[in-house]
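Can't paste images in this forum, so I'm doing it all in text. The chain is below; anyone willing to post the predicted structure tokens underneath?
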Amino acid sequence: MTVHTASVPAPAAAPVRAARVASNETSGRALARAVAVETRKLVNTRIGPVLIAAAALLSGAFAGGRALFPTTGTDFGKLASMAVVPASMISMVLAVLLVAGEFSARTASVTLTLDPRRGRLVLAKSLTVLGLWVVATTLAVVAAALVMVVAPLITGVSMAWTFDVASLAVVAGNGAFLVLAGFAWALALRNAAAPIAFLLVWPTVAMLVGSISDTAARAMAFVAVDPLHELLPDAAVVGPLAVVVAAMVWIFAPGTVGTLRLLRDDL
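Text version of the structure:
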């Protein structure tokens, strides 16, 4: 007598994988929508376009001021570095306002009602401010290029289209560091005035304290808001360790505190 054994069907792995892929695509689209919403918040305000225009004008003014009084070492890299500085500062201000503005205007609860995934909201805001930094830095470099063309027509002195990649990358990286520091402290304090004032004043304070002695200069290197200079051999006071410590102080510690507050608190 032949015995027939019923075969057990294998688990349907394909539908599970398809569901995961669909879920990832849905999450990606939701994140993209959240980033688009946060980007509109930067533009659809009275202060946003004003600050963006100010960044463009100041970038041109900083680069133009250097180009009108050129020295033998003035080149495109020097002008671009000068132009990036005001763009980075104003990008930091916009990053702070993007985060803290919702708490001061008491609209954070509305935002979380529309998108209850608080972790995704933090990620969307961080991606938005990084995108802002990329755009601002690019426009600053373009402004420096325009100054390179126009300035010789006024001064009669031509400048070289040369630049040091490492130095320019450090200046741009310090801009990203400043923007993320503003974002993190605004998330932690839920206040716009304090992070903006402190981050704008702190470089001067650190410079004055660091001028007291070599020991003070080394100590200030660990809490600088432009620590990436420590990656340049000619400008380093402490070294790469200062970058790690400064990132913990200005970005990771306040960012973690602010994120945990947002995830746990009732708004």
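The CA atoms of residues 37 and 145 lie 32 Å apart. DSSP finds nine helices and no strands in the chain.
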